[in-house]
Amino acid sequence: MRSLLPIAALLISPLAQARDLAVVEVTSSSEHSDDSGVSYAPKNVKDRKQTSAWFEGEEGSGLGAWIQLDLGQSQTITGLRVWNGYWLNEDMWQRNNRVKDLEVELSDGSKHSFTLQDVKAIEELRFPKAVSTQTVKLRIKGIHRGNTFNDTAISEVQIFDASPSEVVVPASFTASTTYPADGDANYEPGNVGDGLLDSMWCEGSKDGDGTGEWIELDFGSSAKVGGLVLSNGNALDLKSFMAANSAVKGTVTFSDGSKEALTIKPSMMEQTIRFASPRTASSLRLSFDEVRKGKEFNDLCISELRVVP
Length: 309
What we know:
Elements: H1 8-11, E1 18-20, E2 25-28, E3 54-55, E4 66-84, H2 90-95, E5 98-106, E6 111-115, E7 123-144, E8 153-164, E9 172-175, E10 201-202, E11 214-232, H3 238-243, E12 246-254, E13 259-263, E14 271-292, E15 301-308
Antiparallel strand pairs: 1-8, 2-4, 3-8, 4-7, 4-8, 5-6, 5-7, 9-11, 10-15, 11-14, 11-15, 12-13, 12-14
């Protein structure tokens, strides 16, 4: 099982309150050749999966190599998030190089320098002020060296503009139980708000299948809530989805005590579930009343859970 190390402070940061921009094309100075059917292409940094990555294909450690994200037209951006290194699992993150010094070049030729930490955590990079650009080029200027391989990777990049997010951003996430972290990563409730499909919350009941478990989103203040956008189960791929439990029926309890029953499609495809009665709430809890059993793991997982006005 795989998931993202959640950084709660980032979930409520200014960037989290902004809109994640679509990228129309990703190019790079080089890329590592495919290995046993695994691709290391530049497009991997915008596939909503941390377990795939772009690897530079230069001789040596990749100093000077770059990857460029094209927004299709000029946009006003405020910053970006970077999943630095190869996030397949903890072991592979340690084995491969990570970026230490990163130069961000914009369409007008202006450049911004950032120093990234050598920790497996989301790096949030903010510009001193909002800037207009069509392209964002990330150039490797220094590295944190891996303990086995001399290749440098970036797993995912998100670019944010100055517009408010189109979803209601929670201030915090809690859950009834959480599956213990393992060699792949962890399964904390905050993973459902990171925008990635292959990081997830999984319940941690030793004997149950997830029935009766819950996840709660606290908005910090009153907000208009009109429905859920949900990626059910382990949405990495079909095999992973079939391996773990997924939700079939649930009940939403709002902060005022009102409730609404939901039918959830047992599908890995993103689904939107509108509430019969949109309302104002400061929090909501989604409890799971029925699950579809997985073929390998008897644990309920939810990959993404976003609240829309």
